[in-house]
Amino acid sequence: MNTSTQTPEVLLGEDGEPLRYGDALIELEEILSSLEGASADVDTLSTQVRRASQLVTYCRSRLNTVRDDVADVLDDMSSESP
After folding, report:
1. Contact at 8 Å (CB) between 44 and 24?
2. What is the DSSP string of 5-31?
3. What is the reported pLDDT for 50?
4. How far apart are CA 11 and CA 32, in angstroms?
5. Element (H, E) at 49
6. Helix, strand, or coil here: 82?
7. Within 13 Å, how many C-alpha atoms sit on residue 11's CB side?
8. Residue ranges per domain, the chain?
9. What whole-number distance in Å separates Cα of residue 9 and Cα of residue 59?
10. Does residue 45 contact residue 53 with C-beta atoms inside 8 Å?
11. Of the candidates 9, 12, 51, which has an alpha carbon nearest to the alpha carbon of residue 29?
12. What is the pLDDT of residues 18-51, one digit of tens each?
């Protein structure tokens, strides 16, 4: 069993609820579209880039956690095989 798995930092959505991975990706795509658009707001640029960084870190952490969990399950399954 992998003991290095860490629980990712909980990121909150606009509703104050813990953000789900899929919602984090949607928000990240919205920020990217906003930054790529001709109407990018210079006044909020720093805030948007900071939030995008948080979302990328969160998504990577979630993916690493899931990868480790799946590896643990597969290891357990292979050790149970005759």
Report:
1. no
2. --PPPP-B-TTSSBPPHHHHHHHHHHH
3. 94
4. 18
5. helix 45-80
6. coil
7. 23
8. 21-80
9. 10
10. no
11. 51
12. 999 999 999 999 999 988 877 777 888 899 999 9
